[in-house]
Amino acid sequence: MDIHFGLLSVAGVWALAAMSPGPNFLISAQATLLLGRRKGFATVLGIVCGTVIWGLAGYFGLSAVMAAAPAAFVLLSIGGGAYLIYLGLRLIYGSLGSSGMGASLHEDIPSETSAWRRGLFTNLSNPKTVAFVGSLFVATLPAPTPLWVGLAAVAIMGVTSFTWYSLVVATLSWPQIQQAYSKAQHWIDATAGLVFIVLGIRLAVADLAAGA
Predict the structure, then answer these.
(1) 199 band by pLDDT with thresholds 50, 70 and 90
(2) For the CA atoms of 71, 73, 75, 79, what is the dihedral angle to 10 degrees?
């Protein structure tokens, strides 16, 4: 298999995966709408760091290790699902108001570092990503894969994720969108919170059932 074609295939498949709606999209969108462009981009950098970690794990064969230790995989999935549920509950709680019974993400994310950490943890919450990456590399890259090719593939994944989620942040930073969001913030936050909870339950329960 041609190396250049394989790397282009990695870029194309990963672009489609990144653009699919999921926790990464939701957390980058919420950070931008609630906290502004700077923290939105900080969240994106966290997502990209998570992408690089999963890419390296997939290249170096962690997916095979996790497949050989299903109990560890299930525990990671439950932990990731619990984190997504936590994010969902925080969003719903915050949708009740910014004071009194409510609490906004402003209280949770006082700095760009906290926004970066939230993006990283959200990306790392789904251990199934490493299996997907491992399968992607097997299907698109030549065997045996030279180290520089694997690292190039991981770098392409990181750049692709950064490009897509940066476009999300830049688009949602438009004043018109910010104004529209402010008018329906409580409903949007509550809906996003429910989506996070559903995704978290699906991640945790599905893998718990599979490991039973």
Answers:
(1) confident
(2) 180
Mean pLDDT of all residues belonging to the chain: 82
Helices (H), 36-146: 37-59, 62-68, 70-95, 105-108, 112-124, 128-140
* Amino acid identity for residue 115 in this structure: A
pLDDT band at 160 (very low <50, low <70, confident <90, very high): very high
Please report, as a single letter, which amino acid is at residue 210: A
CA separation, residue 172 to residues 37, 169, 181, 186 (Å):
8, 5, 9, 17
Residue 165 CA to residue 44 CA, distance in Å, equals 6
Does an H or E element contain 188, and which?
A: helix 185-211
pLDDT of residue 190: 83
Share of the chain above pLDDT 90, in %: 30
Q: Give phi and psi for 64, each to the nearest 5.
A: -70, -40
CA distance 192 to 104: 13
Residue 147 CB partners (closer than 8 Å, separation 6+): none
